[in-house]
Design brief:
Blueprint lengths: L5 H20 L4 H20 L3 H13 L4 H8 L4 H29 L4 H26 L11 H14 L4 H26 L16
Helix pairs in contact: 1-4, 2-3, 2-4, 2-5, 3-5, 3-7, 5-6, 6-8, 7-8
């Protein structure tokens, strides 16, 4: 989590506190909230694929909002676990993939000359996945990686804004996302690699006195 995101997320969590308390009173579990978010974001991909970009953006925003509920609900219920964090992270990546797949379908079926736009979607999706993978791999070798110019919160905001503002924003927003996500991946690669030990130098072998 980047430092600039902390105040924003904290304000949002304060505002969503009544929703979290309501979910707890209804017997919802963090896993059920995570699954609901995934289903909603997947549905947003279908809406975008059918050509309804505005409503697809609204539904994607709703599904992404669940990402701010499951963690706080787990803390409230005392059920924070590594498994929950793992599933939540995977569901987030799948949600973005569903949305971009829907956008790809929409552009491909319109018959427009959108070749560069489709390439930008692939690069954006690749950058989104590798950004998360580098952090996960760093934690797998015992390091942390909290740096990142463009993380999920910013990606969600830009994707939603693109869909709400209309078709003319798709290419420029995707171009920015493609560059920024790949740059963030490179930033994290350099950051983590600098903290990891390099190859150990081999000590010179002792000469055999009998030779």
């Amino acid at each position: 989590m980047s430092d600039q995101n902390v105040p924003f997320k904290r304000r949002m969590r304060d505002r969503l506190r009544p929703v979290i308390l309501t979910l707890d009173s209804l017997g919802a579990t963090p896993l059920s909230v995570s699954v609901a978010g995934l289903v909603i974001t997947a549905f947003s991909g279908l809406i975008v694929g059918s050509g309804h970009l505005f409503w697809g953006g609204i539904v994607f925003l709703l599904g992404s909002a669940f990402d701010m509920l499951d963690g706080d609900l787990a803390r409230l219920q005392g059920t924070v676990s590594a498994r929950g964090a793992f599933l939540d992270s995977c569901f987030d990546r799948l949600g973005e993939a569903f949305l971009l797949a829907g956008l790809t379908w929409h552009l491909a079926t319109r018959g427009e000359p959108a070749g560069w736009t489709l390439v930008l979607i692939v690069i954006t999706l690749t950058g989104s996945l590798t950004t998360s993978y580098v952090r996960a791999r760093a934690e797998g070798v015992g390091e942390t990686c909290f740096v990142g110019w463009l993380q999920r919160t910013e990606r969600v905001i830009l994707l939603v804004a693109m869909l709400l503002l209309g078709r003319w924003t798709i290419t420029p927003v995707l171009a920015f996302l493609a560059v920024a996500t790949m740059a963030t991946t490179l930033q994290r690669l350099v950051h983590v690699a600098a903290k990891l030990p390099g190859p150990m130098s081999r000590e010179p072998e002792e000469e055999d006195p009998w030779q």
